[in-house]
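Moderator note: this is an archived Q&A kept for reference. The question asked for a predicted structure of one protein chain; the sequence and the answer are reproduced below.
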Amino acid sequence: MTTQQMDIFLRLSESLNFRKVAEELYTTQPTISRQLRLMEEEWGFPLFVRNNKEVRLTPEGVIMTEYVKKSLNLLAEGHQKVKMQKDGISGKIRIGIPESMDSGGTVMTAISDFSERYADVEINLKKCSFSELRERLSGDELDLVFTLEFDLKNYRGIVCDILDTAVSGFIAAKNYPVTKYHEITGKAFSGETFILPAETDSPGRKEDLYMIFDRLGISGEHIIYAPSTEAVMIKVRAGQGIACSDTSAAAVHDTESFRFYPFPEDLRNVSILYVWKKSNLNPVLALLSNFLIEYSL
């Protein structure tokens, strides 16, 4: 069915006059009749009673009049939104980023560049723990979140793409004992205390850490937990242990307070991802995700 057929049906339902509708649309009465017949065949019921004396709506036609009007109004609204997008889209987008993320890194730069290009879009930015990012996205409180590769397994019903790659490694307070060493070795880091975010915040991190220990020959370690990544970095700064981090985190760039040890090449890279729900139809979200695809190229 086409919008032209829907328009013919509505005009005819109002005037009940084939000749008048044909004149209004600069066509012939047989053309109007043919388009109406195609609609009736598609829907499976008659829309009008037609004889030599009168033209009137059937009960089915009366019902469909209301819904065809609504359909055309929705289509007109959609066309208007598309036009607004071409002319300079406006709207809102709610974005979540990890609480530990560096304000001068790729993510914030991308958001800033998007805001500069689309000045009429209102951006609401929220810094959250990993668990809050997942919960707020799932609960439709956020349209899009940035996260790291290791937490992707904890999301459901999402679409994602890679924005950038960060370098991961261990981080310690600058005055922590291991900082007398220039690189990670099994001997230097064995027997140390390592700090992880709680399982409720970022499930699976303990297994990831043990994989790193096996690869680096670290043993005899002691693991403690903090409620979130932000809380982990507070403990690290206080000299209570070592943590995993990466170059997307603000602390890694605070060389006055911390020492960062990049992992070997095969463990080093971690993807910075942007994630959104498949069911989210916010037009600004589509605009942002397309912008980020171009941005990452």
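Archived answer notes: The first strand starts at residue 48 and ends at 50.
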